[in-house]
């Protein structure tokens, strides 16, 4: 797969979308291995033929900002990269002083080269949007101290490199409550990518949500060891179907598991993006992202010279993540249960981990050290 580099100015975006499209962008938001070939370039006014764009160097305040995103899958996959790109488009439409660029389908092994190309060019800030980009980004950040870097889902920070993530485990807990309400077999399925704390945290939150409304509910997990591999995701989902699951969830970057569940006539829960059109009447809901809630203030801080390296990890109260709309056949009981829990969560009266083995654990543990299942999950986390 060839990595593809794109430059988009606000003028080009406005022309392409029209006024109605811009209004829609303001409220919408939600990898896999790619190859490392020559980038395909989409230039805009002010862009150079090689895909770079004019802008100011990182540093103190600036009248204009050039921001670059690097994705590990193509943005059209209706998953993780799609959600990030929706956030990019939203801020590009919001700020007339912002130029945005992105390169998609970049394998982790090729990411250092892409980060360096942006740092050598006009990028004031670079966003790396998958866990495996952490070390390559840190290496480039050390070489380019006047450029700002933000790494998504990782745990490293440097003077010119921050990290960011949202507490997606909160809407996962709520989705689990819905699953625990609608299941008839008391057996839920979960197709998961890699056994790292980010994914384990989501599995546990989903299981705890289900158990909070149905103490007979159990969760079965199948691992794919890939962020984006639709055939393997489908295979894992089908294996779970053979074990009598009647609600399917996923932590993958494609809707393959959701599609397999819907095709089998069971409840389907997606991730990253609204997926109701794929699952139809079998759609439950999806935990989804609104990355513009982070990208907007961060890019503003670059422009006004106040950017600082930090470890952003906010929850549903910030708007960074939420549940998608309900599917057309979801019973009112499930909706009411989740609505009540969401209100309690926002009021600070409901903590996902209360009553579990992780009650009282701090953010450092929850973010980067969780490595075991809660009781409602069958089996053990693989090494």
Could you explain the architecture of this structure?
The chain is an alpha/beta fold. Helix 8 (256-263) links the parallel strand 10 (247-251) and strand 11. It is built from 12 helices and 14 strands. The model is unreliable at 8-60 (pLDDT under 50). The chain folds into 2 domains: 4-166 and 290-318, Response regulator (Rossmann fold), CATH 3.40.50; 169-285 and 322-368, 3-Layer(aba) Sandwich (Rossmann fold), CATH 3.40.50.2300. Helix 5 (169-182) packs antiparallel against helix 11 (332-346). It has an 8-stranded mixed β-sheet, with helices on both faces. Residues 39-55 have a biased composition (Low complexity). Residues 66-329 form the ABC transporter substrate-binding protein PnrA-like domain. Keywords: Signal. This is BMP family ABC transporter substrate-binding protein.
Give the structural class: alpha/beta
How many DSSP H or I helices?
A: 12
- Biggest β-sheet: strands ordered side by side in the sheet: 2-1-4-3-5-6-7-13
User: What summary fits the major beta sheet?
Assistant: 8 strands, mixed
Distance between the termini: 30 Å
Query: How do the SSEs run, as a string of H and E?
Result: EHEEHEHEHEEHEHEHEHEHEHEEHH
Q: Residue share in helices?
A: 25-40%
Question: How many extended strands?
Answer: 14
Low-confidence stretches: 8-60
């Amino acid at each position: 797969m060839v990595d593809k580099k794109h430059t988009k100015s606000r003028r080009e975006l406005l022309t392409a979308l029209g006024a109605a499209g811009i209004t829609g962008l303001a409220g919408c938001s939600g990898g896999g291995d790619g190859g490392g070939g020559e980038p395909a370039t989409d230039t805009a006014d002010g862009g150079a033929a090689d895909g770079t764009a004019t802008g100011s160097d990182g540093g103190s305040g600036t009248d204009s900002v050039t921001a670059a995103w690097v994705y590990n899958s193509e943005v059209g996959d209706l998953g993780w990269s799609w959600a990030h790109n929706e956030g990019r488009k939203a801020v590009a439409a919001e700020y007339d002083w912002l130029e945005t660029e992105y390169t998609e389908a970049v394998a982790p092994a090729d990411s250092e080269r892409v980060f360096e190309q942006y740092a050598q060019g006009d990028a004031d800030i670079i966003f790396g949007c998958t866990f495996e980009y952490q070390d390559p980004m840190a290496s480039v950040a050390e070489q380019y101290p006047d450029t700002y870097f933000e790494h998504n889902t990782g745990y490293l920070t440097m003077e010119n490199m921050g990290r960011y993530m949202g507490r997606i485990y909160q809407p996962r807990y709520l989705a689990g409550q819905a699953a625990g309400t609608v299941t008839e077999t008391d057996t839920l399925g979960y197709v998961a990518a890699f056994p790292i704390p980010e994914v384990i945290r989501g599995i546990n939150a989903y299981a705890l949500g289900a158990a909070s409304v149905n103490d007979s509910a159990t969760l079965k997990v199948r691992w794919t060891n890939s962020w984006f591999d639709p055939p393997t995701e489908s295979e894992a989902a089908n294996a779970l179907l053979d074990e009598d699951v009647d609600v399917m969830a996923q932590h993958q970057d494609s809707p393959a598991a959701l599609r397999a569940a819907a095709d089998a006539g069971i409840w389907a829960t997606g991730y990253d993006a609204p997926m109701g059109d794929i699952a139809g009447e079998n759609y439950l809901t999806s935990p989804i992202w609104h990355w513009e809630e982070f990208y907007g203030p961060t890019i503003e801080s670059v422009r006004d010279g106040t950017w600082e390296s930090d470890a952003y990890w906010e929850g549903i109260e910030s708007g960074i993540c939420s549940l998608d709309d309900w599917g057309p056949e979801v019973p009112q009981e499930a909706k009411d249960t989740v609505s009540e829990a969401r209100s309690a969560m926002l009021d600070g009266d409901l903590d996902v981990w209360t009553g579990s083995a992780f009650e009282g654990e701090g953010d450092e543990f929850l973010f980067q050290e969780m490595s075991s299942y809660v009781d409602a999950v069958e089996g053990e986390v693989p090494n």
